[in-house]
Specification:
The chain is α+β, with helices and mostly antiparallel strands and about 425 residues long. Helix content is about 35%, strand content about 15%.
C-alpha cells in the first residue's frame, strides 16, 4: 500500500474533486465517519457544510484541508468492506480517527485506491499538527496495515508501477463534459505518472488526450509572469474554448510546481533510455522503414509514440518520444544525437533538397501531404519517402540540445560530513 497525503488551504477544493468523481459515476462513497448523519441520509451540501463548519472553529489556521489517497497494487482486488476497514484503521493510526471524514473509492484507474477528505481542526477547536505527519505516523501505519491485512508491500508495489496500462484518461471532447473537470482528470494522471523534463515534453503526452499547456509567446503577459494555462485542443492542435489558469486546478500544476518535477523526473527516467534507443535501433536496422510514418507505425507496436514537433508552417524541427510502458518522455536530443529528427530522417534516407545556411530558424519539412502531427499519427500507411522542402533548412536547429534538467534533487544528494571543531 502507498499512502499519499496532501494538505491545503481549501477544504472545498479537495471535497469537490471527489464529489465530481462521485457525480460522474467514477467513484462511490464508501463511508462517512464522526458526522451527525449517515451515508444514506447525507447529501453533497450536508457533507460540505459539516466540513466547513468544523474548519470555521479555527479561522486563524490557514492550512486546514487534508486529502489522503491510499493506493494498492494492481494485483490486489479489494472488496468495499475491506477497503473501508483499511481506511478506518489508517485514520486511527495517524491520529485522525475522531475527525469527521469521508472515504471515496475511485474507479477510474488501473489499480484499487480510495481518497479520504478531512480536516486537521478538531470538533473542540484544537488543531492536529501536520508536521512530519507522513514520516512519523503515516509510514508506521502503512507498514502495520500491510502486515495486518496481508497487502503487497510498498517496495513491491513500486516495482509494479511500470506494469500499469497507459493512463485511463479519455480524450477530452469539448462540450461533452465540463471543461475544467475534463482537463483536471487528464492532468492528475499524466503529471503523477509520467516522467517529463520540460513543458514541450509534457505537451507531447497531454496532446494525446486533447489537452495543451500554454505558456504564452515571448514577451506576452503570461510569459513575463511565468504563468501557464491549460486548454482543450482539437485533433489538429487548435485551441477550443477558454484556457484555464493552472491555479484553478486541485493540484495546482503551475510552472513552479512543474519545474520542481523536471529535476526529479530527469533523474528517475535515465535508466529507461535504453528501451527507446534499442527499439529505434532495431527497427531501423531490421525493418528499414522507407518513411517517417512507417517508423512511427512500427514504434506504436512497441508502445512508443514518436511525436514530430512542427512549427506553424508544418515544418518538422524535432522528435519527442513518449514511452507508454515506462511512462517516460524524451526529446530526441536527450536520447542522443542519433535519435534527433535530423538523424532519424537521414537514417531512413529522407534528406532535404537544399540548405540555406543563412537562415537560423528554418526547419526540415516533409511536404508530402502531411500538414499536421495528427495527420502523421492517424495516416501511417502511406509511403512518403522524399522531401520537397518549402523553405530552406539549417541542420543546426535539428541537432541542437534543448533544456534537459541535470541537477540532482536536494534529498538525493550525498550529504557532506561536517568537520568537527577542535
Amino acid at each position: 500500500m502507498v499512502a499519499i497525503i496532501n494538505t491545503g488551504k481549501s477544504i472545498r477544493r479537495a471535497f469537490q474533486y471527489n464529489e465530481n468523481k462521485l457525480r460522474d459515476g467514477a467513484a462511490i462513497l464508501l463511508t462517512i465517519q464522526n458526522c451527525p448523519f449517515n451515508k444514506e441520509l447525507s447529501t453533497e451540501r450536508l457533507r460540505l457544510k459539516m466540513l466547513e463548519a468544523t474548519v470555521a472553529l479555527r479561522s486563524d489556521v490557514a492550512v486546514n484541508a487534508v486529502h489522503i489517497s491510499l493506493n494498492f497494487s494492481p494485483k490486489e482486488f479489494l472488496s468495499n468492506e475491506k477497503m473501508e476497514s483499511i481506511a478506518k484503521d489508517y485514520m486511527d493510526r495517524i491520529g485522525f480517527g475522531n475527525q469527521p471524514y469521508f472515504v471515496y473509492r475511485h474507479q477510474d484507474a488501473g489499480h484499487d485506491h480510495c481518497h479520504i477528505v478531512t480536516t486537521n481542526i478538531t470538533l473542540d477547536g484544537s488543531r492536529i499538527s501536520l508536521h512530519h505527519l507522513g514520516r512519523l505516523k503515516s509510514e508506521p501505519a502503512r507498514i502495520a496495515i500491510e502486515q495486518q491485512y496481508g497487502l503487497i508491500k510498498a517496495d513491491d508495489y513500486k516495482q509494479t508501477l511500470l506494469d500499469f496500462k497507459p493512463v485511463v484518461a479519455s480524450k477530452v471532447v469539448y462540450g461533452k463534459t465540463e471543461t475544467k473537470r475534463a482537463i483536471a482528470n487528464v492532468l492528475v494522471q499524466i503529471i503523477d505518472q509520467y516522467r517529463f523534463t520540460s513543458i514541450a515534453e509534457l505537451n507531447a503526452v497531454l496532446n494525446l488526450y486533447n489537452v495543451h499547456a500554454e505558456t504564452g509567446e515571448q514577451g506576452s503577459r503570461l510569459s513575463r509572469f511565468n504563468g501557464i494555462k491549460y486548454t482543450v485542443v482539437d485533433k489538429d492542435g487548435n485551441p477550443i474554448g477558454v484556457p484555464l489558469k493552472a491555479s484553478l486546478f486541485h493540484k495546482k500544476p503551475t510552472r513552479r510546481t512543474l519545474e520542481t518535477l523536471f529535476v526529479k523526473n530527469d533523474v528517475i527516467r535515465q535508466k529507461y533510455k535504453n528501451r527507446i534507443q534499442n527499439s529505434v535501433n532495431f527497427l531501423l536496422k531490421t525493418k528499414q522503414p522507407k518513411s517517417l510514418e512507417e517508423l512511427i507505425k512500427l514504434l506504436h507496436r512497441e508502445d512508443i509514440r514518436p511525436i514530430p514537433r512542427q512549427n506553424k508552417d508544418g515544418l518538422i524541427y524535432g522528435l519527442t518520444y513518449v514511452d507508454l510502458k515506462t511512462k517516460c518522455v524524451f526529446n530526441g536530443s536527450a536520447l542522443g544525437k542519433q535519435y534527433s529528427a535530423k538523424a532519424i530522417l537521414s537514417a531512413i534516407h529522407l534528406k532535404p533538397d537544399f540548405v540555406n545556411e543563412s537562415n537560423e530558424h528554418s526547419s526540415l519539412s516533409v511536404s508530402s501531404g502531411i500538414s499536421t502531427i495528427a495527420d502523421m499519427q492517424d495516416n501511417v500507411a502511406g509511403d512518403r519517402s522524399h522531401f520537397t522542402p518549402d523553405e530552406r533548412s539549417l541542420m543546426e536547429l535539428l541537432t541542437r540540445y534543448e533544456y534537459v534538467a541535470s541537477g540532482v534533487p536536494y534529498d538525493w544528494r550525498k550529504k557532506k560530513k561536517k568537520r568537527k571543531r577542535r
